[in-house]
Hints:
Pfam families: DUF2783. This is DUF2783 domain-containing protein. The protein is mostly helical. It has 3 helices and no strands. The protein has a domain at about 30-60.
Amino acid sequence: MNVETIAIPAPDDFYEAFCRKHEGLTLEESAAFNIRLIFLLANQVADRNVLRACLDAAGAPSDHLPVSIKL
Length: 71
């Protein structure tokens, strides 16, 4: 898995749409949305090795990712 390169076309557009989906949600609703999205995307990936690599990358310090994630 390559975490050095952003593979999403128009990543800023995706991030903006992702953020808009959270507008007006409580913290609990936002967390539930994130869980549903994670499982939907994981189902699309469908490769256990890639999913494990993603879990490892998500647990790494953010300076190892191609974008800075701010919550």
